[in-house]
Design brief:
387 residues, 8-stranded antiparallel beta sheet, single chain, alpha+beta, disordered N terminus, 16% helix
């Protein structure tokens, strides 16, 4: 029944419904599906969540026509049927109800659903279930299972670099694809906005070989992360070149993919950098955060001056003055200066798990390659700026 929520076939069950279920279980399922609904949508039916009661379960589905999220919760079904209810209103009502059993009921000729719990009683307007659009799944020929922690790593460590520029729509997501790394097959995630790049990889799971490279939209990543936090140990992934489906426990997320060509990111990963600096990750992050207070709001630029064993960070602005801080680092190459956007640098450092970050540099105008000493599958690139 769970997978029926993302098919395009119309419901054959009655619009009458009567069901009772645990309030906490209903709230959890609603939290999974309601956030996909746009609050400022112009199509009334897309503001609703579809509730379908059948057998011993209530199925909830919401969609914005690019993403569909569904979840299934155990329930006592007195009358099987389906209705649609305003998603955010239903969520707010259930969230504020007392801890008890919630009863949902609607007759075939009524225009409202009754929501009862304890002494609370609501009557909420509904829309015809026949008008609720469902995102067709189609053929998804590539199927594999990934550990939840691996999928979190692929998306968490790259999504900060997703472009926010709608004109470059092909950069508005994470590029997920199979690749080779040191002779081994890997599943790789890449995101870039032209100023920084994040590339993360994990061992390629069985079934992923030969999969097309796909661009998973930013909103899909955000909605999926909410599901991954619920504790499922494994995630089933199915995809084609147009859609991708994630199954996390009882929840299912089906999404369209971005129809575009992701750029050849390998070309922007520097190959000839030969100056290596190793620095305490937390110390550098804190120093960048402090020094950037003075930096111009527009550029957020800070200067990095390197010499043997020492890094000096500095910033200045005509309005606020100057700031500088020195850090001990492992560095023995020629002295030189470069500059970076402080926010970009901080967001990148936040992804590094190891105590030490390794910067591989070339010239002041060349991009820097950054590695996480605790994660060999992580690689970052940040473009310099004139400070």
């Amino acid at each position: 029944m769970a997978q029926a929520a993302v098919q395009s076939a119309p419901s054959t069950v009655s619009s009458a419904i009567k069901v009772s279920l645990d309030r906490a279980a209903l709230l959890k399922a609603l939290s999974h599906v309601q956030s996909v609904v746009e609050r400022r949508g112009t199509i009334p039916i897309l503001a609703n969540v579809k509730l379908e009661a059948e057998g011993d379960a209530l199925q909830l589905t919401a969609t914005d026509m690019d993403i569909a999220v569904s979840d299934r919760v155990n329930a006592k079904v007195a009358t099987a049927g389906a209705i649609t209810v305003p998603a955010h209103m239903l969520y707010d009502i259930v969230r504020k109800l007392p801890e008890s059993t919630v009863e949902l009921s609607k007759t075939a000729d009524a225009t409202k659903i009754s929501i009862r719990a304890g002494q609370s009683n609501f009557a909420v307007a509904t829309l015809a279930v026949e008008d609720f659009p469902l995102l067709a799944e189609g053929e998804l020929p590539f199927n594999f299972t990934l550990k939840s922690e691996d999928l979190k790593a692929l998306f968490d460590k790259t999504r900060f670099a997703i472009s926010m520029e709608e004109t470059r729509y092909y950069l508005n997501g994470i590029y997920l694809h199979s690749a080779k790394s040191n002779g081994a097959d890997v599943l790789r995630a890449v995101a870039t906005d032209g100023h920084r790049l994040a590339r993360i990889e994990v061992a390629q799971p069985a079934g992923a070989a030969g999969m097309p490279g796909v661009i998973v939209p930013r909103k899909t990543v955000t909605e999926l992360r909410k599901l991954l936090d619920e504790g499922a140990q494994q995630v089933q992934i199915s995809l084609s070149d147009a859609k991708i489906k994630f199954v996390c426990g009882s929840a299912i997320l089906l999404s369209k993919l971005i129809d575009g060509n992701f750029p050849d990111y390998e070309r922007v990963i520097p190959q000839g950098n030969d100056k290596v600096m190793e620095v305490d990750t937390a110390a550098l992050s804190s120093a960048v955060d402090r020094v950037s207070v003075i930096a111009s709001e527009k550029s957020r630029g800070i200067k990095l001056a390197l010499e043997s064993g020492k890094l000096t960070l500095s910033s200045s602005s005509a309005e606020h003055g100057t700031a500088s801080e020195e850090l001990d680092v492992q560095y023995s190459a020629d002295a030189f200066d470069t500059g970076f956007n402080a926010r970009y640098l901080l967001e990148m450092l936040a992804q590094i798990e190891g105590d030490t970050a390794q910067f591989v540099l070339a010239e002041s105008t060349s991009p820097a390659l950054v590695r996480d000493t605790a994660d060999v599958g992580a690689l970052y690139v940040i473009m310099p700026m004139r400070v």
